[in-house]
Amino acid sequence: MKMKSLLLCFMISSSLLLMSFAAAKAVTCDPMQLSSCADAILSAAKPSAACCAKLKQQQPCFCQYAKTPSLKGYINSKNGRKVAETCKCLSCC
């Protein structure tokens, strides 16, 4: 009986720990955080390291951005896809 209680306690603790890590990785979708990518998207320039870092941070938001009328033209543009590919931030929506 004691072993079962110990195992149950371990399982609950592990679950809570995993849930806290998932919550810590939550991203606030803010397209303005991608302003460092503007030159690369608008002029086909090579994306900066800062741009790639922000793209990776905002990657969970790409599908939302792709559905937003004011943003989808940039996200789905040839240069937008090229920047995402260069930064290794491909998304499947």
UniProtKB/TrEMBL annotation:
In terms of superkingdom, the source organism counts as Eukaryota
Q: Does the keyword Transport apply?
A: yes
Matching InterPro entries, A to Z?
Bifun_inhib/LTP/seed_sf, nsLTP2
* Keywords associated with the record: Lipid-binding, Signal, Transport
A molecular function GO annotation: lipid binding
User: Which residues constitute the signal peptide according to the record?
Assistant: 1-26
Q: Which CDD domains match?
A: nsLTP2
Question: Could you tell me the Gene Ontology terms of the biological process aspect for this record?
Answer: lipid transport
PANTHER family, per this entry?
BIFUNCTIONAL INHIBITOR/LIPID-TRANSFER PROTEIN/SEED STORAGE 2S ALBUMIN SUPERFAMILY PROTEIN, BIFUNCTIONAL INHIBITOR_LIPID-TRANSFER PROTEIN_SEED STORAGE 2S ALBUMIN SUPERFAMILY PROTEIN
Q: What is this protein called?
A: Bifunctional inhibitor/plant lipid transfer protein/seed storage helical domain-containing protein
The organism encoding this protein is: Dioscorea zingiberensis
